[in-house]
Amino acid sequence: MSFRRKHILVNSGVHEKGTFTTQDAIGNIKKDPNYSKAGAIALFIGVVRGETLDANKGQVQGLTIEAYEEKADEVLAKISGELAKKPGIVNVQIHHLLGDFEVGDDLVYVAVAGGHRTDVFPVLREAVERYKSEVPVFKKERIISAEGKPAEYWVAENQSNHL
Q1: Residue 60's domain spans which residues?
Q2: Does 73 map to a domain?
Q3: Is residue 4 in a domain?
Q4: Backbone angles phi and psi of 75, in degrees to 5
Q5: Environment class of residue 141 by beta-carbon count within 10 Å: exposed (0-12), middle (13-18) or buried (19+)?
Q6: Predicted confidence band at 10 (pLDDT cuts at 50, 70, 90)?
């Protein structure tokens, strides 16, 4: 497995905002030696939502995303590697971005390539659910409260799975 830091290929990992794109993830898949076996690529893009889970809390202005980077890279690579071994799957990429984000900004890219769409969709969902529950990524919401006051807080683990 190769790693992407400063324009080197990687199968999965965390990246500073602005250093990795959807095209990078798809390009990595297309460079896989087994890419000729793929008949489908499914892509999930997680973005910053402008609403809190509790609408009475206020409106989201943005997020700050941090990670225990070494462990996050390790867990993302483990998830991708395990899922890539499923029947009909050619490649799995999970890339989470780090930094300060505004509403609508991309946060995460998950791409799965496989022989058929019926192979890739269940694995795409599993990849999303697993990164949400297993990867040490931390989110701080910046909001404007219902009273019009700015506030920020770290999103708890049980809330994070719904973001």
Answers
A1: 12-160
A2: yes
A3: no
A4: -70, -40
A5: buried
A6: low
**For position 2, what pLDDT does the model report?**
39
Mean pLDDT of 27-31: 93
Total domain count for the chain? 1
Dihedral angle over CA of 22, 75, 38, 15, nearest 10: 20
Contact (CB, 8 A) for 75 and 67: no
Rounded CA gap, 122 and 108, in Å?
A: 18
- Confirm if 52 and 58 have CB atoms less than 8 A apart: yes
Please, what is the end-to-end C-alpha distance for the chain in angstroms? 29
Q: In this structure, what CATH number is given to the domain that contains residue 28?
A: 3.90.1170.40
The answer to the question of residue 3 being in a domain is: no
List CB contacts of 21: < 8 A, sequence separation 6 or more: 109
